[in-house]
Structures are given as C-alpha cells and as structure tokens.
Give the backbone structure.
Amino acid sequence: MGTQGDLSKDEELGSSHQDHNISHKETVMKGWAWTLILAGVLMALPAAPGMCGKVEDGIKIGAAGPFTGAAAAPGMEIYNSIKLAVEEKNAAGGIQGVKVELVMGDTAGDAAQGVNVAERFCSDDRIYGVVGPAMSDIAEAVLRLYGSHDMVQISSAATKSDLTEKGYGHFFRTCARNDAYGPAVARFLVHRLEAKRVYLLNAKDAYSQGFADQVAKTLEALGVQEVWRDTVVSGEKDYSSVLTKVKARNPDLVLFASKPPPDHTLMVRQMRDLGIQAIYFGTEGAKDKAEFIKASEGAAEGAYVYHFATDIHKVPEAKDYVEAYEKTYGTLSGFGPSAYEAARILLAAVERAAEDGAIDRKEVLEEVAATKDFPSILGFPVTFDEKGDLKGGATYIFKVRGDDFELVEVVTGAGTT
Amino acid sequence: MDLILQQLPQQLVNGFTVGGVYALIAIGYSMVYGVLFMLNFAHGEIYMVGGFTGWWVLHFLSSPEGLRAPPLVVVLAMILAAMVLCGALGVAVERVAYRRLRQAPRINLLLCALGVAILLQNTVLQTHGAETRHFLVSDLIPSELRVMEVGGVVLSFMRVVVVVAALALMAGLTWMIRRTKMGKAMRATAQDAEAAAFMGIETDRIVMWTFFIGSALGGAAGALVGLLFTQVDFFMGYAAGIKGFTGAVLGGIGSIPGAMLGGLLLGLLEALGTAFISSTYRDVIAFVVLILVMLFRPQGLLGRKELEKV
C-alpha cells in the first residue's frame, strides 16, 4: 500500500534527505504561523463594535427565523409580515429618503445556524436591529452574541420566560411569555374544560419544555391530582408507543407542546387512530388551517389551541395589514401580526435614532426601549417594560370547528387564580 | 406493572409495524454490503425519494371530488411506482458514482455515498421546498375499517396495510433469493465474487440487480411510511437511514434474514423501551442495544464471523 512505499524511500535516501525535510518543515511551519496570525487578526476585525454610521450610507434591518425546516410555515408568515412592514415604510419614503433593506437570516430552527446568522448580522455595520429569532431556544443561544454588539432584538414569538430575566438590555418581544401563557392555559383547562386527568406531552426543546413545566406547576397549584408527563423527540413520526402509554391512563385531556405544525397533526391523528377519545390541546404551532386542520383530515375536530395573538381578522386596526398580507401571501395563521408590529416598532425606533443624521446601534436600542403606547394592530398599544417584555398581552384560546378556528376564550392576567 | 403488561400487546403491534419498515430499509443496506462490501449511505435518501414518489402518485390520483381510482389500485400504484423509481435511481447511482470506485479503498466509496446522499437530499429540497408534504389518505380507508379493535389491541387500517405490505415484500424477496436463478447468482456473488465470475456469472449485472432490488425495497418503505404517518419531508432519509443501518448491523450486515430480524428487533426494542423506560430515551435504548451487540457479538445476530484472509 502507499504508506509502506514512502517509508522505504526515506530509509534509502538517508540522513541528507531527512535534513532537507527538517528545514523544509521549519519554513512551512513559519509560513503557517504567520497565516494563522493574519487570519486571527482579520477575523477579529468584524467583531469590533458597530461603528456610528451615516444615514445615507444605507440602513438595513435583519430578520432571523426558521424560514426553512419543519416550522417553515409560521416562519415564512413572520418573514413576509416583516417584509410587508419594510415595504410600507419604503413606499412612504423610507427613512429620510433612504430605502431600508431587509436582510433574511434563516436559522432553519437550528441553534448552530442561528449563531451563524447572528454573527453575519453583527458583522454587517449597516444592520441596526434584528427582528427575531422567533424560536425560544435559538433566541437563547444568540442572546449573548447580539448583546455584546449592542444589537437590539425584537422577537415576535420567543416566549420562554427567562429570556428577559437574564439581565440583557437589548432583547424585547411583542408576545407575552410562557409564564403568562402556561398558567393561563392551565386555568382554562381546569375552570372551563373541567379536566381532571391530564396527560402532558412535550418535545424536548426550550419552549415546549418550559411551557409544559408551567402548565404542570399551575395544575398542581390548582389541585389537579392526576397529571402525567412524557417527552417525545421532535421530528419523530411515530408517536404510537408513547400514545399507547397515554391510552393506558385514560386521560380527559392530552396537551402536546411542540413547535412545528406537522407534529401536532401527527399527534392528533395518531391519537384518534389509537382510539383515544380525550380532548386534544395544542400549542401555538397547531394554529394553522392548512397544516393542522386540513392535513389531519377531521381528526382535529373539537381540538383546542392557544395562541398569543387574537384572531387578527376581528381587530379593526388590523384591517389594512390583513388585506395587504392575504392578497399576496394567503391566509394568516397568527404568527404574522406580532412580527409585523415588531418590524414597525424597530423601524420607528431607527427613524427616531436617525433624526440627527447619524445612527448607531446603541441609539436604536435606546429608542426601542423607550417605546410607549405605540399604536399597534394587535388590539392594544405596545409598551415594553424594563425587562423588555410586552405590557398587556393576553392568551387566546381557539377551538377547531369545521375547517376553521373559533375564538372561545380570552384569558388575561397572570398567576394561578 | 399491571399497567405496563396491559399495554404490552399494543406496544408489540406498534413495534412490529415500524420494525417492518426498518427491516425493508435494512435489507437494502445488507444486500449492497454483501455484494460490494460497502455501506451505501445514500440508501436513506432513496427511501425519502420513495416517500415523495408515493406522494406524487397519490396527488395525481386524487381530485377534489375524491380518488380517480379504487383505493386498492391507488395504494398498489404508490408502492409500485416508488419501487420502480427508486430501483432505477439506485441503479443509476451505482453506475454513475460507485462503479468506478469498486477497486478503491472502502473509505472512498463511503465518502462518495455520503456525497450522493447530500446531492439527493438537496435536490429534493430545491425542487420541493422545505415544508412537510401531507398525504390526504382518508379516501383510501374504508370508513368501517378505520379503527379496529382486535382482542384489546387497536389497529388502524393503514397500519395493517403497511404490515401486510412489508411482510409480503420480505416474503417475495426471500422466495426470489432462495428459488430463482437470479437469487442463486446473487448469493454466489455475495459469497465470493471472483469464484462466481469464474462460474460465468456477470458480476456487473448482479451488482446492478442488487442495487435495483435493495433500492426498490427502500423506496417501498418510504411510500409505506408516507401512507402510515401521512407525512414526508426532505429530511426524513437521515434518521431512517441510521435506523435501517442499525437494524442491518444488529442482524448481521450482509445477511438478508439478519437485516429482517435486526430491523424488526429494533422496532420492537424502541416500542418496548418507550413503554418500560421512557419515550425520551427511545433512540438511546436502540443504540445502547446496538453497542452491546457489537461488543459481545460483533458479527451481529445472524452474521458469520469474518475470517481474515491473509
């Protein structure tokens, strides 16, 4: 084989060949050392904090989210809504005449990819703010990176509670948090659906785990004795084994926390195929007419879903947005409005920061933090609290009736009453 | 404990169903390994293509008013189309990518296979997008038979269809290997390619048929999974490929009965592991078993100890 031949060649040529080898090696190593040092210096340069820029040099904002992958349906609704907000701004003259450019950063629902996107955005000096990431675990992974570059983030859908508890001043969200939704949903289950035997299933990601934990905690506080839990691997197509366990317990209600709509479709279908009659309760991802109701071909009838956004078709302030969106992109499921608002708030903040002709990320961040009573299409004015959370969000519960979702309850307030 | 025993029959059914699918994929790996001593890592992606083929056939044979053909015809068409297309794809891959590397070190073939896998996955991603495709199967299921309860075990119609189809395919393959001339030629080539060539068996043709059949079975598995789980996406080949490969190794790589056994066993282990231990560790359990088998019986359950030919 090849290696053996080389050895014998070395032996044949003797010491002189080896001496030549050593000095050649030394030269090569020196060359490598310089290359490494140079590469290191070049790589460190973009990490320097965003420099102050002039408005006429161009203004960009980034959109980070799962635009491909299992959660692509809500992901693209988010992107298209952000795009709509940017296009509207540009049609109205942009910022001091400069058109805003939207940069797409696809995280594909993967944390490593999310970090890549964050690095790309931070190293682009013309990007002054980011809408997203939409997924809690991705948002968690990139908090520190964006923070170290003073890049403001407004997420439209990352609901994991502790994202705003870590002491970062650059993260905001136009959706409420799990520790508001979780307890709200649990209260609905107990007071309205009178569930006494609840099986909680969740996928093993930050959002789903967090949400299920919150629901379990509240159910316990409310005195529900029969609560069982299990986790599934997201992307797994076969839930029959865990559902067999569920069936053995004979619960009144099965709650499944997972992000991608297809997971919910599978779960509810397989539940019915196994003859489990319990009520199905899905998390936000399930609120998708095409992916959940239509694709499950009747299995989803009577299922409940919670969402952080109301039925946008019923909010009068949102009429123009709904029309504009649905004309181009199809029916809205629920993820769009908060993304549209997040983009509008960011653009407004950039505009205020750009008033003096110069603009930098810290200024934009301060303007976003100062957002107060921003007239929004969500049905209430937007104000951020000192942690970056939304003031005044509610939890909306929908039920599947026929081929659409019907709003059945609005749960407000936090806590476990 | 009672609770678990109560679940046992149902879990066995669950395990058997998914095990049948794993077995079909595993057979593809074993067949190719037996003849070429290479692990065709593109096999998982061929399974994925089979799934999409099934989707397209269902799509063409469906209309807003209902199916354009009787349900049985549609199901058979889905499976057959997947088999033919994937078989052809397997042959094409062999001809274009692997044939020239037959004398090369095994690692080259492995890398080539990975390259083909990436190519297939990304081609489907580009042409079909990243969203999950749903199978609207309710028209295929007779309404009275939708969910049947047999002795405490709930069987959905589709589940029965999948198990029956998988068993039929495996039986067909076994018959072919044992009773036909082609089967004999394949076994001969797997045992000793040189000697088989001396006996007048054209190695190239046998390799082509091996790839055709192995890939066809993988494609059928993809279509069956589409029918059963009603979803396909461009990424499903990766996980299924690993499971199929594990099943093949578990049963003894190179051995077709081993692949069937390994695949079924893997499915059962996953189901029972979920029931008795936890559904979170479903994959972990399967792979721990694989490691144990590799440690104590490296040739797999039905494999022969490889003699070092000096």
Notes: The first helix of chain A runs from residue 2 to 13. Residues 1-19, 46-50 of chain A have pLDDT under 50 and may be disordered. The radius of gyration of chain A is 26 Å. DSSP finds 13 helices and 14 strands in chain A.
